[in-house]
Amino acid sequence: MTERALWVAKTGLDAQQTRMAVIANNLANVNTTGFKKDRAMFDDLMYQNIRQVGGQNTQNTQSPTGTAVGTGVRTVSTEKVFSQGNVQQTGNTMDVAINGRGFLQINMPNGDISYTRDGSLTLDSTGQLVTSSGLTVSPAITIPPGALSVTIGTDGTVSAQMPGTPTPTTLGQIELADFINPTGLQAVGDNLFKATGSSGAPIIGVAGQAEFGTLTQGSLETSNVNVVEELVNMIEAQRAYEMNSKAISTADQMLSFVTQNL
Q1: Fewer CB atoms inside 10 Å of the end CB: C or N, the chain?
Q2: Which three-class secondary structure state does DSSP give residue 182?
Q3: What pairing do the DSSP bridges indicate for beta strands 113-116 and 149-152?
Q4: Could you read off the pLDDT of 109-151 as tens digits, one per residue?
Q5: DSSP state of 262
């Protein structure tokens, strides 16, 4: 039983190490635009049934309780929390923040589509709307040279005021994508997500319609990491790690006592 306690406590140490890594990553990205915090999820491991609950004690009586010893804990998943981050004004014309559900669609170099909440957009050498990493927005939108001003409406309509033209010229529309299960998206870095079988196929639509959020020009969505909450989680993880470490130390002392008396 003492040896079993060592292995059970070991699984607890592993779980808390994973939780600390998740917390550290959240804190490291507290200023990352559009970042969504992670949380670690745990499951208890299988139980060793020494005496079955409800077993027959005699011909006429059943055991009201049983004897089952757990074998520890495991990290079952780390999932994103897609709560809304604060919207911060930047004054940059090309910046857009999504208020509500939805993701911007991004063209990858291999032809795939990725998704992001990071609306820090800019223009490349050809006037195309691109991310800060140089990836083009889908559908592609090109700002003509000489445009006096660019307007991005709450529904994603992009228009530009051209010299000598009294009315703005519509250049295209930024469409949003949504998913039945956003937590099923795969984070791949660079503020990008990829669709998976768990997320479901993307639902494409116009900002402000149906379940889609609206766009705010000249603003960005900040990280949804709450520093105080993460610090409290860190203290909890540290204390849990210490208790599991203490369990290993106690089990070791018990084994030492046994061997000294052999």
Answers
A1: C
A2: helix
A3: unpaired
A4: 999 999 999 999 999 999 999 999 999 999 999 999 989 999 9
A5: -
